[in-house]
Amino acid sequence: MKRLLVLAVVVAGAYGCGFPTFPPLLNRVVAGEGVRPHSWPWQVSLQSNSRGRWSHVCGGTLISQEWVLTAAHCINEVDDYRVELGKHSLKATEEGSVARSATKIITHEGYNVLLSRNDIALIKLSSPVALSDTITPACLPERDVVLPHGTPCFVTGWGRLSTNGPAADILQQALLPVVGHDVCSQPDWWNVLATEKMVCAGGDGIAAGCNGDSGGPLNCPNPDGSWDVHGVVSFGSGEGCNVLQKPTVFTQVSSYVWWIKQVSSCLFLQLPFDKNKTNKQKKNIY
């Protein structure tokens, strides 16, 4: 299946997008669980520096060797930021993990903090990362693709393990089925706060463990076993995690593919990408 993706000009060799070396173990656990180590190799930790110490503030998604996708609300003009990649535990020193400072951060020009509109940002890393078994970019969906109601997607992150509970040490995942816009925008759901440029997922009232850190990915499967990142965690209910009829709301990546290409046009090439052929041959350009 051919698709246009945003690609960097550096040859990455053996690693294509969307196919983890260590596939995730999908037990359909709605309440959330620790992940198989490095099974979501595009998941990153966005960190800020406070008094000389780096602390996790948001999740993010590696989309090329030099660029990370996250939420605009994760960024302020005061803090210094860096990105850690290839992490499973945020506390342990792990072989193969790397850190890169953020040399450029671009938030969407239409971002509205009050209504969470256009809640998306790009971070350019200080230098390209070498792709490996533990660091692989995500695939992006085709432009304007809308997921069907009930699509079984997974949110990942180091968020709180329960409402008002402690933050996770190891990366967590939780099953969050997509809620169609016609449902999510109903008055007793998110009403007008949910726009057609957002994806809603969850909202069944079963505690989801708050796995989806702000800025982190909504990972959705393809028939060929690969994964596309369809969402960036934007907001949820102030009453807790996965509240009934208040699903987690994500910025819909497919609505911003063109924006991603425009912002990074000086560094990216627009090339046709045959994901099946590329991964079978174990070659890709990133």
From TrEMBL:
Main subcellular localisation: secreted
InterPro entries named among the record's database cross-references: Peptidase_S1_Elastase_sf (IPR050850), Peptidase_S1_PA (IPR009003), Peptidase_S1_PA_chymotrypsin (IPR043504), Peptidase_S1A (IPR001314), Trypsin_dom (IPR001254), TRYPSIN_HIS (IPR018114), TRYPSIN_SER (IPR033116)
SUPFAM superfamilies, A to Z: Trypsin-like serine proteases
Residue ranges constituting the Peptidase S1 domain according to the UniProt record: 29-265
Keyword Cell cycle found: no
Cellular-component GO terms for this entry: extracellular space
Entries under Pfam families matching the protein: Trypsin (PF00089)
A GO molecular-function descriptor: serine-type endopeptidase activity
Keywords: Disulfide bond, Hydrolase, Protease, Secreted, Serine protease, Signal, Zymogen
Keyword Acyltransferase: no
EC id: 3.4.21.71
Catalytic activity: Preferential cleavage: Leu-|-Xaa, Met-|-Xaa and Phe-|-Xaa. Hydrolyzes elastin
GO biological process, one term: proteolysis
Localization terms from the record: Secreted
UniProt signal peptide: 1-16
Protein name, as recorded: pancreatic elastase II
